[in-house]
Amino acid sequence: MQPEKAHYFATDCLTFISKIPGIPALMSAMFEVKDKRLERKLFGLTFKNPVGLAAGFDKDARWYNELAHLGFGFIEIGTLTPKAQIGNAQPRLFRITEDHGLINRMGFNNLGAEDAIKRLKDRKTNLVIGGNIGKNTATANEDALADYVFNFNTLHDYVDYFVVNVSCPNVKDLTKLQDTPFLLNLLGQLKEINKTKKKAKPILLKIAPDLNNSQLDEVIEIVAQTKIDGIIAANTTTSRENLKTDPKIITKIANGGLSGKPVTKRATEVIRYLSEKSNKAFPIIGVGGIHSAADALEKLDAGADLVQIYTGFIYEGPALIKEINQAILNKMGES
Ligand SMILES: Cc1cc2nc3c(=O)[nH]c(=O)nc-3n(C[C@H](O)[C@H](O)[C@H](O)COP(=O)(O)O)c2cc1C
Fold first, then answer.
1. Residue 128 Cβ < 6 Å to ligand 1
2. pTM score, two decimals?
């Protein structure tokens, strides 16, 4: 089955079986690790455990109520844009199994922030839900700020934290928004808007693993200046280095963001750099190539406070969430 079709098939099956009485409780019993020691308190929120579902899996907030039974400590919906958009032409999601990776160029396909609210109003889970926001592809970078502000205002009452996504390689020139003056202005404005709301919502910035050290230094400076709540490191990479898959296949797949095992090392390096260089000045959510409990522990050791999974979840299934949580507990027991 084509990977994108498989995605909808699997998640629709999950929704279907979740309607059978007793199944959600059974899934929770199978996958959840209930232990107070896994709880994490960050930016005013309490996470049941530090293992989250990364953005892009449930872009439109269709399945988060059902996914909540698989043992996650939090779920990030989005990337949402102000207007609905179909994204790039299909096929746009490719498995490179030899490398345990995915290449995608979805291009922010989503039904729009206002549409997502319909389903966010029907929240049946007490898990922390993050809202990842972006700009429409048709919006020029000069006008991007208004898109982020629109999403922030629209979703403010319905999500627990926000992620400003300027690091997706599949929307033309989006990664150019990682530019410091733009981010200082945008994040500063979102912080100001937060002050006008009943309850301020934490704001995180999601960065690409392709930033070099001097760009990472700028990220540290941006967090210091804007006082946002943290960083998500990292998004997919445009690099195609050190792959086992036949280069002809890689060339044929063409553009897209690479995720999974091939990004494990680089994502960890970025987390370690940010954590060490900033003297652990802000929380970091570590994501990129977590396919085993050991991979997750490595991210936490490098300085991540929470982790997220996407490609590892596709390859390993929900058992991975439980494995990671149990490994964290085992490690706590040892020390
Ligand atoms: C098919 C696909 C779609 C994605 N869509 C988004 C997205 O909409 N917004 C976003 O911030 N990240 C998106 N991501 C990136 C993931 O959230 C994550 O940062 C990246 O895949 C690295 O983690 P992983 O190796 O565990 O997959 C997407 C990833 C994949 C594979």
1. no
2. 0.98
